[in-house]
Design brief:
The structure is a single chain. With 252 residues, the protein is α+β, with helices and mostly antiparallel strands. The protein has 2 domains: 4-83, no CATH class; 131-251, Chitinase A, domain 3, CATH 3.10.50. 40% of the residues lie in helices and 17% in strands. Strands 1, 2, 3, 4, 5, 6 and 7 form a 7-stranded antiparallel sheet that branches. The chain is elongated and about 80 Å long. Keywords: Coiled coil, Isomerase, Rotamase, Signal. One of its GO terms (molecular function) is peptidyl-prolyl cis-trans isomerase activity.
Length: 252
C-alpha cells in the first residue's frame, strides 16, 4: 500500500502551488505551450492523483484522511510554520503506517474467510450439475469436447490453450491472444497436474479447482487467498514445440 510518507517533496510542492492557484481570486490562465509547462503540469496531476488514491485506500481501511488538511500541512511546511515538530510528525506517520498494516491484515483475513465460504458453496452447487465429475482429491471436471488422442503423464511437457476465471466470472488470465502455453505438467498447481492427465490431445475440459489444489491461503495478486479457480482448457499437444510461451503464472 502506498502511504503518505512516500509523497516526494517535489510532488507535494506542485500540489500546493496548484491549490494556491485554484484559491486565488483571479487565477492566471494556464498555458501548456512548452515542454517545461507540460512537465510541470503533469507532475502536479500525478501528485494529485497519488494523494487522491492514497486517501481512498485509507478510507477502505477505515482510516479517513482530509485532503484540505493535507494541503494545509504542505503549505505550512513550505512557509516554515508547521504546527507539529518533525519528531511529532514522524511519530504520527509511524503510528498511521502501523495501523494501516494492521487494518490490511484484518481485511485480508476477513476476505480469505469469505472466499472459503463462497468457494465451498460454489463447489457444492457445481458438483450437482449434469456432466460434472469429481475426483477423489475433490477436483471437478467436465468434458466439453471429447477426443481419442494420447493422454499426457505428469512428467510430460504439454501445450494448451486456457482461460482462467474466479467463481464470480472474473477472468484473470487467458492464452487466447498470446498463443498456446507450454510447460512441464508436474511444475504447475496440483489441480492442473491432475486434471490435464485426464485429457486426450484435442479434447477440451472445464476444471473447477478447489483452493487446496490451487494456491490455498496464498494471495496471488489478482487471485485472492482461498480462491476456487475455474479453467477452460484445450490440450493441443504433448512434447516440446517452439515457439510457445511458458507455463501460465496462475497455474504454477
Amino acid at each position: 500500500m502506498r502511504l503518505l510518507t512516500k509523497v516526494s517533496l517535489i510532488a507535494a510542492t506542485v500540489l500546493t502551488l496548484s491549490a494556491c492557484n485554484k484559491e486565488a481570486e483571479q487565477p492566471k490562465p494556464l498555458v501548456l505551450d512548452t515542454d517545461t509547462a507540460k512537465q510541470s503540469y503533469s507532475l502536479g496531476v500525478s501528485a494529485g492523483r497519488f494523494i487522491d488514491t492514497t486517501i481512498q485506500e485509507h478510507e477502505k481501511l477505515g482510516l479517513p484522511l482530509v485532503s484540505e488538511t493535507i494541503v494545509r500541512g504542505i503549505q505550512d511546511q513550505l512557509a516554515g510554520k508547521a504546527q507539529l515538530t518533525e519528531e511529532e510528525v514522524q511519530k504520527v506517520m509511524m503510528a498511521l503506517e502501523q495501523t494501516a498494516r494492521e487494518k490490511q491484515v484484518e481485511v485480508a483475513k476477513a476476505q480469505a474467510e469469505q472466499n472459503v465460504a463462497a468457494g465451498k458453496a460454489f463447489l457444492e452447487t457445481n458438483a450437482k450439475k449434469e456432466g460434472v465429475k469429481v475426483t477423489e482429491s475433490g477436483l471437478q471436471y467436465e468434458v466439453v469436447q471429447a477426443a481419442d488422442g494420447p493422454k499426457p503423464a505428469a512428467t510430460d511437457v504439454v501445450r494448451v490453450h486456457y482461460t482462467g476465471t474466479l467463481v464470480d466470472g472474473t477472468e484473470f488470465d487467458s492464452s487466447k491472444e498470446r498463443g498456446p502455453a507450454q510447460f512441464p505438467l508436474n511444475q504447475v498447481i496440483k489441480g492442473w497436474t491432475e486434471g490435464v492427465q485426464l485429457m486426450s490431445v484435442g479434447s477440451k475440459f472445464k476444471f473447477t479447482i478447489p483452493s487446496d489444489l490451487a494456491y490455498g491461503e496464498r494471495d496471488m495478486g489478482t487471485i485472492p487467498a482461498n480462491s476456487v479457480l475455474v479453467f477452460d482448457v484445450e490440450l493441443l499437444g504433448i512434447g516440446e514445440e517452439a515457439p510457445a510461451e511458458e507455463a501460465p503464472a496462475e497455474a504454477k
